Amino acid sequence: MVKIKQVSNPLARFSVEPGVHHHHREAQQFVGGKVPLGLKRKGLRVLVTGGAGFVGSHLVDRLLARGDSVIVVDNLFTGRKENVLHHAGNPRFEMIRHDVVEPILLEVDHIYHLACPASPVHYKHNPVKTIKTNVVGTLNMLGLAKRVGARFLLTSTSEVYGDPLQHPQVETYWGNVNPIGVRSCYDEGKRTAETLTMDYHRSANLEVRIARIFNTYGPRMCIDDGRVVSNFVAQALRKEPLTVYGDGKQTRSFQYVSDLVEGLMKLMEGEHVGPFNLGNPGEFTMLELAKVVQDTIDPNAKIEFRPNTADDPHKRKPDISRAKELLGWEPKIPLHKGLPLMVQDFRDRIFGDRKPDAAAGDN
Ligand code: NAD
Ligand code: UDP
User: Where is the NAD(P)-binding domain (predicted)?
Assistant: First the structure.
């Protein structure tokens, strides 16, 4: 049980332990009758940076559904307005087109910091900008959290483990990252973002949370972002060959987006800083993934081998014991159940009103 102690200013934050800010829902609504009428709030005020992107937009859906007020800050580099358009009339929703590399001041209780291109094609497109987003952008959002006393959650990545020498990866593993490679703008950028997050926690007493997200898929992924699941699904629907890079024996572990969103919210609401691996331990080679896509969309889809990209991690699988034990979280949706949910969305977006030609099948 968390004890809430009121500090002298009734409008000020509530603390659990000296120096530690706490903003539980009950605390927010317990305003001691001293807040001027009309200023009482229900729910939390939540900032989601990168909220017009794939993961962010699903998180926004969940936060609004439970009654929070949500501000999305997004520069729409890889995000799309369409992802959040369905909230346009909601008075608890606001979207600001803004680049996190520039400072911004907003009054919020929680910050989910997602802003950063996530697919290798996007983050390698302008690597210096990727570093700036991860370092300057994260600094700006941590500065904001400190100034307004908000709790801050960083969406880090399994890429901090690089091409891992430990399998599966546990949070205590420090990783094997090439600091000068083409992926390092992202990997080292996220590692620095983790460092900044922990330094703000230690030196400024900021309440922080760190999630290390493993490969996630689902509706609203960018269709042409080059990630393996979006590529294979779009290719199978368009009757193009599935492009397997290298020998296809490298592995990834694929998590459905609703499982991730659940994990992120549990992490934010819980008491533990982390880092926590959030991923589905079901591990697949790229050839096995291609087979699942064939079974789901088109058993006749061809496979075409292509040269692999530099520094591609050979294997990846999360050890999620820590999240299971401390957050009471584990993913529920296996690949063969999650994939069809994404396929319908891709079908609608690729073909629009137009029905895919009969040959594309409708299974
Ligand atoms: P995404 O590209 O769909 O979303 C990222 C969002 O951030 C986009 O809406 C983009 O426009 C926005 N953005 C990028 N740079 C910005 C900037 N400088 N200022 C403001 N907005 C900016 O990617 P996603 O898959 O939704 O990933 C969300 C977060 O989760 C990212 O931080 C990513 O690193 C992390 N993550 C995702 C995965 C995954 O498999 N999806 C895996 C590991 C980590
Ligand atoms: N990959 C593939 N075909 C594609 C795209 C990617 O075989 O069309 C492979 C890629 O080489 C990597 C894995 O799929 O081994 C995952 O790549 P992705 O870009 O989705 O994410 P990553 O985990 O590398 O960030």
Answer: 47-340
The answer to whether residue 300 is domain-embedded is no
**Is 252 a pocket residue for ligand 2 (Cβ < 6 Å)?**
yes
Give residue 123 CA to ligand 1 midpoint distance, Å. Answer: 9
User: In the chain, how many domains are there?
Assistant: 1
Ligand 1 centroid distance, CA of 113 (Å): 9
Query: Quick one: average pLDDT of 218-225?
Result: 94
In angstroms, the CA 297 to CA 355 distance is 15
* 245 is a catalytic site residue: no
The DSSP letter of residue 162 is B
Question: Has residue 190 got a pLDDT over 60?
Answer: yes
**pLDDT, tens only, 68-94:** 999 999 999 999 999 999 999 999 999
Distance 159 CA to ligand 2 centre (A): 12
Whose CA is closest to 336, among 217, 243, 225, 249? 217
Residue 309 CB contacts under 8 Å (≥ 6 apart), including other chains:
120, 182, 245
* Domain range for 274: 45-216+255-280+315-333
- Of the residues 186, 200, 217, 256, which is catalytic? 186
The one-character DSSP state at 156 is E
Residue 272 located in a structural domain: yes
In a domain, 153, yes or no: yes
Judge if the beta carbon of residue 244 lies within 6 A of ligand 2: yes
Q: What is the CATH number of the domain that holds 50?
A: 3.40.50.720
Report the candidate in 112, 148, 109, 155 with the shortest Cα–Cα distance to residue 134.
155
Q: Looking at the predicted structure, is the pLDDT value of residue 36 above 90?
A: no
Q: Is residue 192 part of a domain?
A: yes
Torsion angle in degrees (nearest 10) through CA of 167, 169, 172, 178: 90
